[in-house]
Specification:
heterodimer, A: mainly beta, Porin, 18-stranded antiparallel barrel, two-stranded antiparallel ribbon, 1 helix, 67% strand, globular, B: alpha+beta, Cytochrome Bc1 Complex, Chain D, domain 2, three-stranded antiparallel beta sheet, 7 helices, 5 strands
Chain lengths: 361, 194
């Protein structure tokens, strides 16, 4: 009798144990808090100071070996104090009367958005992401969209990708992407076709390799714009990178077509080039180069220096950027940056100072 | 008296771990010990024969039948011989340490098995059988990584903070690999790269 009671108890525990393990979820949370304080001085007189704060958090739940669910929240806040905003401004009130007020020196903003909400599948070389996600292509730089992205590793080092987004921040139309990414005989290559319905069709080819420790890269992008009268865009970029002792060196040369540049949605997109103010994005007839060097200063600190120059038509722009980075702790980094930009006209010359901290968890 | 002293000095305490595994709806009773059992240390991974090979002994069996299907519950025990007697007293600290180590070994075994399954499913094609490859010649061989490097790199992919040109390919896999998975994969890679 005693044995039977024990065994019944054992059976009950077995059932309870099974139920628990079937419903148990492995959820992890990661995120980052970024705080930036900056001051931009335009033409040595007008100064805008302010801060940007970004807080991102993401919950990843493992449903089983093949499926995960991801939800991410992004909260941004910023404030700008524009010392040049002196004087009066006029507005019309609801009764139609003209109201004159002092110009606002302080502009603040904040937003909370759900920038990620997707279900992911990964199994034996096939992945599928369904839902709200960042769209990462050579012409886009993580703009949020809602749709589906699939990748398939057809062989070692060769991956096919296809994506369709019905709702995206690029335009109010459908967007798609097709890609082949791979490596053959030590040469990496990417072929991309990215289209935004009614706006543009973009094709990109890129190749890169490393010879004797020197990284070489080339990229050519062509855009066929749907808007009548807008010339097709072309952008070619070559890059060289290497290391001499502890110093990392980089060089990039970019040419945009004389009629138009290849379409990009963000200055950080792979098919263009940027520094702080300096950008070659969506501008025709540009020849630009960016040269950079970075080196460790101590166990926790590194320094970098970049210089960019571009001929835009018959005019020219340039920018120099110096930056110090420091790791205060494993998950806490900070930097101080100085940038001096010389624009197409002296009125657009500006300097910018920035200090930031980033905590990751 | 002399016999008693010798016993105290050299005796081993026999400490028994026990676990319970079950399997429902068995049709062929003759092959039951080959089936992967659920629950306890069997964890839907090991059969009774596997458990026996790992040093577990059958302590009790309960069988119930419904129609032509049988439900089995096995109680298994594993004896751990512990030299934990000192000056005639049980050294509970030592005993506790050995029990913990034994439990850790069992947990590691399961972790390595899970890590192997996930690595072979999602990582092996690009990173190689023993994680010795450098995918696209841009990434490092991850069999040289410590756990912290592996965790930091995977995290960086999920936050778009790491891209040597092919982050687009790696990111979907990083996003389905949880911190527990990463630990398990790391333990597996350490085991096969000893």
């Amino acid at each position: 009798m005693t044995k039977m009671i024990k065994m019944s108890l054992v059976a009950a525990v077995a059932v309870a144990g099974f139920t628990t393990s079937a419903s148990a979820m492995d959820t992890s949370y990661t995120g980052k808090l970024y705080v930036e304080n900056h001051a931009t001085t335009v033409k040595d007189t007008q100064t805008v100071t302010g801060y940007d704060i970004d807080f991102d958090v993401k919950a990843t739940t493992k449903i089983n070996d093949n499926f995960t669910a991801i939800v991410g929240i992004q909260a941004d806040a910023d404030r700008k104090d524009d010392k040049s905003a002196k004087g009066k401004e006029a507005t019309v009130d609801k009764n139609g009367a003209i109201v004159v007020t002092d110009k606002k020196e302080e502009v603040t903003g904040s937003a909370v958005t759900m920038d990620k909400a997707n279900l992911n599948y990964a199994n034996n070389g096939f992945t599928l992401k369904f839902g709200r996600q960042g769209i990462n292509t050579p012409t886009t730089d993580g703009e949020t969209g809602e749709g589906v992205l699939a990748t398939y590793a057809v062989a070692k080092g060769i991956t096919l990708a296809a994506a369709h987004f019905g709702n995206n921040k690029i335009a109010d139309t459908d967007a798609h992407a097709l890609a082949v990414l791979g490596s053959v005989s030590g040469v990496n290559f990417q072929l991309w076709n990215v289209g935004v319905a009614g706006v543009v069709e973009n094709n990109t080819i890129s190749a890169s390799t490393t010879v004797e420790g020197i990284a070489l890269g080339a990229r050519y992008a062509m855009s066929d714009f749907d808007t009548a009268g807008v010339a097709d865009g072309k952008t070619a970029i070559v890059t060289v990178g290497g290391k001499v002792s502890d110093v990392s060196l980089s060089f990039a040369y970019l040419v945009n077509g004389s009629g138009n540049a290849a379409f990009t949605t963000d200055a950080s997109s792979a098919n263009t080039a940027e520094l702080v103010k300096f950008s070659a994005q969506n501008t025709a007839d540009v020849k630009a180069f960016i040269i950079g060097a970075s080196a460790p200063v101590s166990d926790t600190m590194s320094a970098s220096l970049k210089y960019g120059s571009a001929d835009v038509g018959s005019a020219s722009i340039s920018e120099v950027v110096a930056q110090l980075n420091n790791n205060f702790a494993k998950n806490l980094t900070g930097s101080v940056r100085y940038a001096a930009y010389s624009g197409l006209t002296s009125a657009s010359d500006q300097t910018q100072m920035r200090a930031d901290l980033k905590y990751s968890f | 008296m002399k016999y008693l002293i010798c016993t105290i000095l050299f005796a081993n305490i026999l400490f028994a771990n026990s676990t319970m595994c079950y399997k429902n709806k068995i049709t062929d009773v003759s092959t039951v010990e080959n089936e992967k059992f659920d629950g306890g240390e069997c964890n839907s991974t090991y059969s009774i024969l596997d458990m026996k090979k790992s040093g577990w002994n059958i302590s009790d069996i309960k069988i119930s039948q419904k129609n032509d299907l049988f439900n089995f519950i096995y109680i298994l025990k594993k004896d751990t011989k512990v030299k934990a007697i000192s000056n005639g007293k049980v050294d509970y600290a030592k005993l506790s340490k050995i029990i913990k180590e034994d439990k850790q070994k069992q947990e590691d075994k399961i972790a390595i098995k899970n890590g192997k399954r996930i690595y072979n499913k999602n990582c092996k094609l690009c990173h190689g059988l023993k994680a010795e490859l450098k995918p696209q010649n841009t990434s490092l061989a991850i069999n040289t990584f410590n756990l912290e490097q592996l965790q930091d790199t995977m995290r960086a992919y999920t936050w778009n903070e790491q891209d040597k040109g092919f982050a687009f390919v790696m990111k979907p896999y990083a996003e389905v690999t949880t911190p527990t998975d990463i630990q398990n994969i790391f333990k597996y890679l350490k085991t096969i790269n000893k």
